[in-house]
Amino acid sequence: MTRTRTAALVATAAAVAAALAACTSSGGGGGGSTGTADTGELKAGVFLDVTSWDPAAADIGFDGPYLSAVYDPLVALDKDGKPVPALAKSWEWSADRLTLTAELRTDVTFDDGQKFDSAAAVANLQHLKAGVRSGQAYLNVAGVEAKDADTVEIKLSKRDDSLLYFMGLGRSWMASPAAIQAGALANGPVGSGPYTYDKANSAPQSQYVFTKKQSHWDSGTYPFPTVKLFPITDQTASFNAMLSGQLNVQFANAANLPKAKENGWNIASKPSSWVGVQFADRTGSQVKALGDQRVRQAISYAFDAAGILKAVGNGSGTVTNQLFPSDNSGVYDKSMNDKYKTDMAKAKQLLADAGYPDGFAVKMPMSPIFAAWQPAANQTFGELGIKVEWQDMAMPDYQKNAPTYPMFLAVIAMSGNDMATLSDQVTTAQWYNPNPSVDAFPEVKALVEQVEKAEPGPQQTELLKQLNTKLVDLAWWSVWYQADNNYFSVKGITVTPITGMMFPTLRFIQRG
Amino acid sequence: MLSFIAKRLLSGILLLVVVTSGTFFLAYLAVGDPTPGLLGNSATPAQQAALRTKIGYDQPLLVQFWNWFSNAATGDFGTSWRNFQPVNDQMALRVPVTLSVVVVATVLSAVIGVAVGIACGLRPGGMLDRGLKLASVVLFALPGFWVSLVLVMWFAIELRWFPAIGYVSPDQSVGGWLRSITLPSVSLALGAIVMVGEQLRNGFLQVANQDFVRTLRARGLSGRRVTMHVLRNASPAALTVLALLFVGLLGGAIVVEIVFNLPGIGSLTQSASQIGDIPVLLGLTAVTVVFVVIVNFLLDLVLGWVNPKVRER
Fold first, then answer.
1. pTM of the entire predicted model
2. Longest distance between any two alpha carbons in chain B, whole Å
């Protein structure tokens, strides 16, 4: 090939590349990665794809931004995680807190022309109660009925002070009753939300486009005329998309925090999950040693939580031994954070006092997702003389099998509501705590009962504080730290994270 | 020729049945109870039990197999255990993405690889030939994800010629589609180009030294016609490599799908494996086997056309 031909080929290739670059793309692109560039539309990188357009089959975790575009909730949350009115204008509890009466908006119509009224709300709540994923929020709901055209009554079989919180978190999206009846929601959303799903310009599982409804009753809460949501699981791909200007909001990896600062992006962080050791056998039925409070305390003293947070969690979180959120819970007590300050000598002494000077043997599960913490666990247990036999398994097996082991490494989502924390972490059966051992600890049981009977407010918070102190003292868990979720946004867009939502709903993404 | 086609089709169907049935039992053995993975970490044991009933996991394994197999035989691969959407719908969204990237990568590998292979075969030891050798060492040594990331850094972030992530369907914009698959296809093709080029170059040199080529030259045939004869005789090995590459790229596409966030079958396979979505895994296995069977069938046809002796085997 002559030099002229080579040059011609190179020139042709460059021309083709330039022509392609000039082509418009609905896949995003353009816009800067810094400054206030490109905030006309919201282009958010969400970690996971929408699980389902049917609110009863959707996850709370990452489905929030998708569902909040097309559905209105009965109850929403404010930035502090407190329930606030949405389609329910107001609500009132009965004196025994077993009946919740809600007044509904009367100016809302679903996208298929059906009117939102009490019959629609009842159909939705019954659908949500029956849902395999949403049902957990309504475990204590005995029935729902329409009192008149714009009033519904929710009757509980047992008092549930976290019901409104879970409804606001993502368990009260209202869909067209006709679509529920037809079983059509799995194929696409039919709601009354602030945006219309633009199916023609969307590519399911890759990009979802939503166009704002100017006439929506809460239009002022949603500043962006167009919203594009991109499910991006790989954090490097997501960060590259942010750098290239394809995104202006991103669910971020803490490892990229320094680069985000260099780029002048806004950084929003919030505690999302606790990391540490879950004691599934606090009663010592499998491994007698774990039934001794001093052994659990020894394990808590032994771990260098600050070092683990720095090395594994990129320093993004708060070292604490509590699992009430460190930033907005009235129960969280910062002064208790030094209770288990790393002290290997004290840990060994406690083990010796409990009758295990040479440690003991225990089997623990291990999955690739927890491998980052394994070296620290190995080193710490080794120094204590605790001989761990790790049993490898895939992540789905880990969730299934971990609680059958006496203890296991855990990264567990936290709640932004104190009563929900009590329920999720202490009193109700969860995959990570299938047999709550409250009954085996009379002091804990008594406090739980008092909390559940107390009037919501300062009295209940005070009792929860006492319970929290007791749980920390008993080393109910060995919490190392509360890990943050991080979100990057370009200048001109702010994200307000909410504990309990892995990615906040659209009302928490604003201009500014 | 007809019996040749019929035999290949029958063996393909048999392969499909054996592989998918084997995958069914292996998947059930490997995944176990999928409900914890499917429902996430907030699910209660009661919710897990409800999901087991909903997806039919509480039925005996052989009953589940028969239900799946009888439906799959009619082309219905059931519904995903994660989002309860038909598996066919999900594959209809995902397969075109992976095929776009893999077909373009294969075409690039074929066109450039053949051109480079012939050029190197014609001038062994020349600059291009030495360049091919160096490229084959370097590109084989470099991990695919690293090559992809370098392309993203340069062409998407620095120059902004192409998007860093995402896929645009040709229905929406042909230009957007080309932009979205260019970098992923090039990432996949780079290693394949040198493989095809090297294979063809070696085959070309081997054939070029045979007696019949000397005879053709002695008879006064033009260089171009001699090259065509040599190419036809050297092509079976390169064609086989190309077909193997296509199948390999289909599996290897997962890396570029992750780096470029393409919603293809590779990333779907990965997510379905992680959460234990067995119907999706089985559907993807069936589709992949179908592609392997089709590609091998086409390869046999082309080889039979290039070399009639193959048809008699």
1. 0.83
2. 84
